[in-house]
C-alpha cells in the first residue's frame, strides 16, 4: 500500500511522522477534561425527557440533599446570561436562541434543564437521578419526511437559477430521482468536555474541546457580556471533532453558568448518549435531482432540490445544492434549498458538510444517467468537464480532476468493470465498481504566527490554531523546516491557547492554506532579520545558533500576519476528489463488502505525505460509514434517539475496511498560497457514499437511494 502512495509523491518527501503522535499514543497529550484545577467540582446535566413543552415544576430537594452536592442549577435559580443571541453567522429563528438554563421552555429531547454540581463526578451523577420534573407536554415534530410541507427558505428565496431552469425536462435523456441522507453524528472518540473557572467577576478561563479557541472566546464574551481579553480559552489537544466543535454548545454555556453560581471551577464531560443530542449532527436531508442530457452525454440541464432539518431555535444551513451549481459544465441550472424546523438539537457542519450530502444525490443521479445513456460513468464526467467555473466563468486557480480520474481508474482496475449490472459473479458474490466525486471551496483566512529562534538553534512557532487530528502540526513543522533549512525535529509548533497570536478556527479544510501561509511568511521574515543582523556577509545557509551567540542574543523573534491571500476575485478556487470503489454484494443476504478503494485528491501540493494519506483514508472510511451503516434513528412517538450508543449506531470497524489507496495528483496551485496547497479534509469524504451506492448497483442491479445501504435495502 505504501508503495502506491509514494508512487505519486515527490521522491524526496517520504514524510515526517506525526509530530504529536507519540504524545497521543502514550497518553502524554492532555485533553481538556484532563487538567487538574484547584478546587475542581463536577457537573452532570439533567436532560429533558420530553421533546417539546414547558417545565411546570422542578423538584431539586432530594438532589440538593444528596452527598457531596454543591448546587442544582435550574432556570429558577441560575444566574442570568445577558447575551443570548443566535450563533454567529446564523439567521435568527423566531424561537431562538436557546436560553440554556434560563428558560422553562423545552424545544428538544435531552435539552439541558438542570446542572447538578458536586465534589465528585459520581455524587453529581447520582444526584442528577434525583431531580424530579413536571412538564406541560406540547406536541413535538421530529420527522422530516412527515413535515416536508413546513419547508421554508432560510436565506432569501432559497432558489438559484442559471440559464433555463427546467431545461433538463425537455432533454432526450433524463433522470429524476429522490435521495435521502439520514442523520449522521460526528461522535469523535474524545467526548466533548469543558472545565470552566471564573478568576474574577468578569474574568474566565476555560479548558474546552473546540476547533477554534478565538471564536469560542468571542462567543463566550458576547454571551456573558465580558471583554474577550478577559477570557482565556485553552484547547491544546482535540481528540477528533469532524465539525462537532466548530461552535459553542449548551453544555459549555451550562458549565460557565454553573461555575459562576458555585464560585468554583466546574468540569463537565458529556456522556456518549449526550453526544447524539447536544453537539450537532449531519442533518437528515431529502433531495430530488433531475438531469437532462443529449444522446452523446452532454448535460443540458440540472435541477437539484434539497430540504434539510434544523432545530426550532436556530436555522442551520449548508451548501447541499452547491455541487450541482459548479461540479459540471452545464448551461441550465435550478437549485432550491429549504429547511424544516423540528424539535431536535441544532445540526452542524459534519465533515464534507452539505457538499457530501449533495454529492450523494448528484453523483448517484449521474450514475443513473450513465446507464440510461449506455456511457461509461468516467467518460460521462469527462464529456461534461468544466474547464472554467460554470457559475462565474472565472478560470480555476488550478484543476487536475481529469488526472485524478485516470489515477483512480488505473488503481481500482476500472477496465475490469462491466457496464451491465449483475454480470460479474465470483465465489457467490456479485462484483461491481462505482465512482463518485466531489468538490469543495479552497479557502484561506488571515492568520498570525510568532516565530522565535532559540539560542540552541531550535525554532518555536506560536499561533492560536487548533489541530483536531488532520496533521496540522506536522504540516506546519515541515513548512518551517523547509523554509528555514533546519531539521524538522528542531521545530516546535505551539497552538490551542487564545493568548497566542490570532488564528482562524480549524474548519472548512482551510488551516494549511491559512496558518501555513503565516508560518511560511514568518520564516521568511525571521531569515531576513538574521540577514540584517549579520550584514552583507550573509549566506543562504545560516547557522542560527552561531549567529545568536556571536551577537550575544538569547533569541530572535518575529510576529508575522498573513492575510487571506489575493486572486479570489480573478479565480475560482476548489479542491476536487474522486473515489473509486470495488464491492462484493450478496443479494440473498443483502451484505455489501467493500473490496477495494482508490480515493484521489486534487488538493494542490502535498505538504505532509503521511498525514495527508491518513486524511484521505479517514475521509474514505467516514464515507463508507455514511454509505453502509451510519444512521441516528429517532422514535418519533417520543422524539428520542433510540440508538444513541456505539453498540447500536454503527460505524466501520477494521473488518469493514479493505485496502484503501490514497492517491494525490500533487501539483501545486500557483494562486492560493505560497506553498501551493489546497484543502483536503472535506473532499476526502465528499462523493464516497455515491461511489459505494453506484458500485452496489453495478454489482447487483439494485439501486438504493436512501442511505445507509443496510442489508434490508440491498437484498
Ligand atoms: Mo469541518 S465540517 O469544517 O470541521
TrEMBL record:
Q: What is its EC number?
A: 1.17.1.4
Principal EC category = oxidoreductase
The answer to whether the entry has keyword Oxidoreductase is yes
Coiled-coil positions: none
Domain Aldehyde oxidase/xanthine dehydrogenase a/b hammerhead as annotated: residue spans: 26-139
Tagged with keyword Oxidoreductase = yes
Q: Which Pfam families match?
A: Ald_Xan_dh_C, MoCoBD_1, MoCoBD_2
Which keywords, in A-to-Z order, does the entry hold? Molybdenum, Oxidoreductase
Q: InterPro entries, per this entry?
A: Ald_Oxase/Xan_DH_a/b, Ald_Oxase/Xan_DH_a/b_sf, Ald_Oxase/xanthine_DH-like, AldOxase/xan_DH_MoCoBD1, AldOxase/xan_DH_MoCoBD2, AldOxase/xan_DH_Mopterin-bd_sf
GO function terms (MF aspect): xanthine dehydrogenase activity
Q: Please identify the protein, giving its name as recorded.
A: Xanthine dehydrogenase YagR molybdenum-binding subunit
What is the source species? Mucilaginibacter pocheonensis
Amino acid at each position: 500500500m505504501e508503495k502506491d502512495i509514494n508512487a505519486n509523491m515527490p521522491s524526496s518527501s517520504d514524510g515526517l511522522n506525526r509530530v504529536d503522535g507519540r504524545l497521543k499514543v502514550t497518553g502524554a497529550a492532555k485533553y481538556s477534561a484532563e487538567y487538574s484545577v484547584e478546587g475542581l467540582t463536577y457537573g452532570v446535566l439533567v436532560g429533558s425527557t420530553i421533546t417539546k413543552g414547558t417545565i411546570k415544576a422542578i423538584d431539586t430537594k432530594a438532589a440538593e440533599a444528596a452527598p457531596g452536592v454543591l448546587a442544582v442549577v435550574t432556570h429558577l435559580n441560575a444566574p442570568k446570561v445577558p447575551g443570548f443571541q443566535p450563533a454567529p453567522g446564523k439567521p435568527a429563528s423566531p424561537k431562538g436562541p436557546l436560553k440554556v438554563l434560563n428558560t422553562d421552555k423545552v424545544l428538544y429531547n435531552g435539552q439541558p434543564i438542570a446542572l447538578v454540581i458536586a465534589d465528585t463526578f459520581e455524587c453529581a451523577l447520582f444526584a442528577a437521578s434525583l431531580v424530579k420534573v413536571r412538564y406541560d407536554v406540547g406536541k413535538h415534530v421530529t420527522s422530516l419526511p412527515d413535515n416536508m410541507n413546513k419547508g421554508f427558505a432560510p436565506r432569501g428565496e432559497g432558489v438559484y437559477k442559471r440559464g433555463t431552469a427546467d431545461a433538463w425536462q425537455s432533454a432526450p435523456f433524463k433522470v429524476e430521482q429522490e435521495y435521502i441522507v439520514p442523520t449522521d453524528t460526528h461522535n469523535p472518540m474524545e467526548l466533548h468536555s469543558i472545565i470552566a473557572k471564573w478568576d474574577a467577576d468578569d474574568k474566565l478561563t476555560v479548558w474546552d474541546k473546540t476547533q477554534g479557541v478565538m471564536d469560542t472566546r468571542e462567543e463566550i464574551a458576547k454571551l456573558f457580556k465580558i471583554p474577550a481579553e478577559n477570557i482565556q480559552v485553552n484547547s491544546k489537544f482535540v481528540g477528533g471533532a469532524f465539525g462537532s466543535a466548530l461552535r459553542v454548545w449548551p453544555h459549555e454555556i451550562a458549565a460557565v453558568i454553573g461555575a459562576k453560581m458555585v464560585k468554583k471551577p466546574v468540569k463537565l464531560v458529556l456522556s456518549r448518549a449526550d453526544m447524539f443530542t447536544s453537539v450537532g449532527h449531519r442533518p437528515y436531508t431529502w433531495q430530488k435531482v433531475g438531469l437532462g442530457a443529449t444522446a452523446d452525454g452532454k448535460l443540458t440541464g440540472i435541477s437539484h432540490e434539497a430540504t434539510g432539518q434544523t432545530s426550532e431555535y436556530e436555522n442551520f444551513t449548508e451548501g447541499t445544492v452547491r455541487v450541482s451549481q459548479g461540479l459540471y459544465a452545464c448551461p441550465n441550472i435550478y437549485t432550491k434549498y429549504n429547511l424544516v424546523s423540528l424539535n431536535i438539537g441544532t445540526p452542524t457542519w459534519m465533515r464534507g458538510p452539505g457538499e457530501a450530502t449533495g454529492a450523494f444525490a448528484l453523483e448517484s443521479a449521474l450514475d443513473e444517467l450513465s446507464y440510461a445513456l449506455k456511457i461509461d460513468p468516467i467518460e460521462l464526467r469527462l464529456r461534461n468537464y468544466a474547464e472554467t467555473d460554470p457559475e462565474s466563468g472565472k478560470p480555476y486557480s488550478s484543476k487536475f480532476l481529469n488526472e485524478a480520474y485516470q489515477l483512480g481508474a488505473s488503481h481500482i482496475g476500472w477496465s475490469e468493470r462491466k457496464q451491465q449490472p449483475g454480470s460479474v459473479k465470483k465465489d457467490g458474490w456479485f462484483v461491481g465498481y462505482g465512482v463518485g466525486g466531489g468538490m469543495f471551496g479552497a479557502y484561506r483566512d488571515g492568520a498570525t504566527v510568532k516565530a522565535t529562534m532559540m539560542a540552541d538553534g531550535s525554532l518555536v512557532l506560536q499561533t492560536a490554531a487548533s489541530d483536531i487530528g488532520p496533521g496540522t502540526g506536522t504540516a506546519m513543522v515541515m513548512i518551517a523546516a523547509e523554509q528555514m533549512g533546519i531539521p524538522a525535529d528542531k521545530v516546535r509548533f505551539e497552538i490551542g491557547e487564545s493568548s497566542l497570536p490570532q488564528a482562524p478556527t480549524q474548519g472548512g479544510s482551510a488551516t494549511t492554506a491559512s496558518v501555513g501561509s503565516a508560518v511560511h511568511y514568518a520564516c521568511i521574515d525571521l531569515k531576513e532579520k538574521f540577514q540584517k543582523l549579520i550584514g552583507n556577509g550573509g549566506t543562504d545557509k545560516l547557522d542560527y545558533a552561531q549567529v545568536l551567540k556571536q551577537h550575544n542574543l538569547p533569541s530572535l523573534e518575529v510576529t508575522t500576519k498573513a492575510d487571506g491571500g489575493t486572486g479570489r476575485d480573478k479565480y475560482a478556487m476548489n479542491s476536487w476528489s474522486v473515489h473509486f470503489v470495488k464491492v462484493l454484494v450478496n443479494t440473498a443476504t443483502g451484505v455489501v463488502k467493500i473490496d477495494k478503494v482508490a480515493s484521489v485528491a486534487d488538493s494542490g501540493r502535498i505538504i505532509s505525505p503521511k498525514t495527508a494519506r491518513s486524511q484521505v483514508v479517514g475521509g474514505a472510511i467516514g464515507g463508507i460509514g455514511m454509505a453502509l451503516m451510519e444512521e441516528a434513528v429517532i422514535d418519533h412517538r417520543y422524539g428520542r434517539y433510540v440508538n444513541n450508543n456505539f453498540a447500536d449506531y454503527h460505524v466501520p470497524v477494521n473488518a469493514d475496511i479493505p485496502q484503501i489507496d490514497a492517491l494525490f495528483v500533487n501539483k501545486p496551485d500557483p494562486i492560493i498560497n505560497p506553498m501551493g496547497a489546497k484543502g483536503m479534509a472535506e473532499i476526502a469524504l465528499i462523493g464516497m457514499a455515491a461511489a459505494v451506492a453506484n458500485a452496489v448497483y453495478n454489482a447487483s442491479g439494485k439501486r438504493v437511494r436512501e442511505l445507509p445501504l443496510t442489508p434490508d435495502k440491498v437484498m
